[in-house]
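Work Package 3 (structural annotation) set out to generate three-dimensional models for the target panel prioritized at the project kickoff. During this period the team completed the workflow that converts sequence records into discrete structure tokens, so that structures can be stored uniformly alongside our sequence database. As a representative example, we reproduce one entry of 136 residues exactly as it appears in the project archive.
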Amino acid sequence: MAVVSPAYAASFVRWMLVSLLLFILTALLMARLLQHRDWHRRETLVPAVGMLLFFPAFVSLMNGQDSAFTTLGLCLWLYGLLTGREALAGLGLALVTVRPHIALMLAVPFLLRRGRVLLWFAAGSAVLGLFSLLLL
């Protein structure tokens, strides 16, 4: 794979760069969501930078955790719900299955309403599960 190699230190740096890229993507997505909510461009700069400097994000990068995927998934889920894009909300929630206890807790309310979000969540989770099995 492009991220993993026998050299541990180099692999760790590449993984940290992937995680940092995901955190930057998440910050940009949240800034865009704030602009949809009538925030001006300059006002969205502080929350976006604050998210990148958020201590748990820093710890996640230093420890090589997968929190960047969970954070991106939660932001996609929120963005999809607030903008009416159910497919994006469901796929974002599927990305949160990296932490299944959070994903399942957030998916339960969609059993009765917004079934399309639940359908996209199930489909996205199945694809990610299949991908995980193929990696093994």
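The chain has a mean pLDDT of 82.
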